[in-house]
Structures are given as C-alpha cells and as structure tokens.
Amino acid sequence: MIDELTFADWLRLREDADAAARAVELVDPVRRRLTGPGPHVIHDLGTGTGSMGRWLAPQLPGPQHWVMYDRDDDLLARATAGMAAVAAVDGGAVTAETRRTDITRLTPADLSGAALVTASALLDMLTEAEARRMVDSCAGAGCPALFMVSVVGRVRFAPADPLDAEFTEAFNAHQRRTTEGRALLGPDAVEAVVDAFGRHGVPVQVRSSPWRLGSEDSALALHWLAGWLEAAVETRPELAEAAVGYARRRRSEAAEGRLHVEVDHTDLLAGCG
After folding, report:
1. Nearest residue to 73 (alpha-carbon basis) of 99, 34, 106
2. Can you tell me the distance from the alpha carbon of 271 to that of 30, in angstroms, rounded to the nearest whole number?
3. How many CA atoms lie within 13 A of 196 on its CB side?
C-alpha cells in the first residue's frame, strides 16, 4: 500500500526531482537580462509551496521581489516561509508577497513592470483559451516567461512491461479530459503555448526536462505511479483489474532496486533571446 499524501506533501516529495530536471541553460539568458539596480519583480504563477522561487532566485542577481500566485492560503503561507532564507546569487535581498487569485484572469496591467513571469508544472492544467490569455498578458506586458516542468505525455520504464503503452495512452486521455466545462490541454500544452507566443512574434526556446527516477527515488516513483494508474483507470475503468497486477509488479521491482522511470517534461523560455 502507498500512503496518501496531502497536495503540499506531494509538492515537497517532487521538489528535488523537479529541480534536477529543469533545464538550467535557460537561466543564463534570464540572468543576462536582469540588469540595473532592481528590484527585479518576478511573478510566479501557480506557486504551490514556492519551489520555483527557492530554485530560481538563488541563481539570479538581486535585489528581487517575487509575487507568488495561488488559490490555496496554506500553500501561499508555505511559499512565503520558504522564501525567508533565500538570497540572490550576488547576495542581494529576495522579498516575496502572495496573491490569492485566479491566474487565468491575469491581464497585462497585472504584470506591468515584471522582469519575468515563471511557472512550474502548470501548463497542462490550463485550457487553450486560458493559456492564450496568459500568453497575451505576458506579451502585452512585454516581459519574458519561463515555464518549466510541463508534461508532454511520454513515459519510459525499465524494465518494460507490455501494458506500459496502454496505461500511458489512458493517462494522457485523462490529462486531456473536460472537467467542469474546461477542456484541459494536458500534454498538448507546450505546443499550444509556443504557438500562442508565435502569434505575437515572441521567440521561444524549448528544452527537455525529464524526471529520471531510479532506486534512490523509489518513494516519488511509487507515489507518482499510484496517481498515474488511478488517472488511467478513471478514464478507462476496464483497466482496473490489470492495474492491480501492474502495480504489484512495479512495487516488487522498486523493492528490488530495479525500477527506473523516465517522465518527460519540457521547459520553455519566451521573449528572452
């Protein structure tokens, strides 16, 4: 059995894997752009517990002021606490404020004066219309955007299993589901966002950022696997019986130190050549 986690616990569990996956070469153009006395204002959308700020702020010059958006007060409180001891790469001060708001309704005016807009593990949860509005706001405000760790629908296991492809297909269908009238982009999100920036003539750099989970990451791999299978079965209930045996095999492989999982993600940097 896999113990259930709160969402905050899940974010904490995946934080190191996200950090290891992110394409660090996309940070260099951002760093070069942040000149002048500052403070450099950075808007972090869907901040969760603030892992993006904790990862990125120490790689950028200061002073910095982070504006962190989420809909959950508890997550925002954790994000604020997590930024308290963070300093810029040059020792400059890093401050933070939080905003509990719907990020899909942000306007160019909301982002006015921003040096950068960031997000991590967010794009797949947007609809096409929401993604376009977000891009329109970034382009309208004239600020670059760094969107990282977006799922793209590809998973590789070692050892392989005959059911890998079927569960992947079912999971991807779940990611593209319509919920409360919202048709989510899921693994199509990166392509949609790149196209949306292209309509504004904004150049985009794209880099791969896969999770590579081995024996030392078994806790994360097994929690991810449980959620992956649950979503697949929700979409295709006829896979429920097969999922039980599949999960048992994967847990056995993890216990033996043989399970390796690669979950593909993509990072993109827009408007910052």
Report:
1. 99
2. 10
3. 24
What token pair was written down for 273? 């050549």
Report the candidate in 19, 25, 73 with the shortest Cα–Cα distance to residue 49: 73
Q: How far apart are the first and last CA of the chain?
A: 48
Q: What is the DSSP string of 153-220?
A: EEEEEES--TTHHHHHHHHHHHHT-EETTEEB-GGGHHHHHHHHHHHTT--EEEEE--EEE-GGGHHH
Summarised one tens digit per residue, pLDDT across range 53-97 is 999 999 999 899 999 999 999 999 999 999 999 999 999 999 999
Beta carbons of 94 and 125 less than 8 angstroms apart: no
Instruction: Report the chain (273 residues): mean pLDDT per 10 consecutive residues.
Output: 78 96 97 90 97 98 96 95 95 96 94 97 97 97 97 97 98 97 97 98 98 96 97 98 98 97 98 83
DSSP reduced 3-state for 272: coil
pTM more than 0.90: yes
Output the pLDDT for position 2. Answer: 53
Residues 255 and 260: their CA atoms lie apart, in Å, by: 12
Angstrom CA distances, 187 to 34, 193, 243, 254, 263, stand at 31, 11, 22, 26, 12
Buried b (16+ CB within 10 A) or exposed e, 3-39: eeeeeeebbbebbebbbebbbeebbeebeebbeeebb
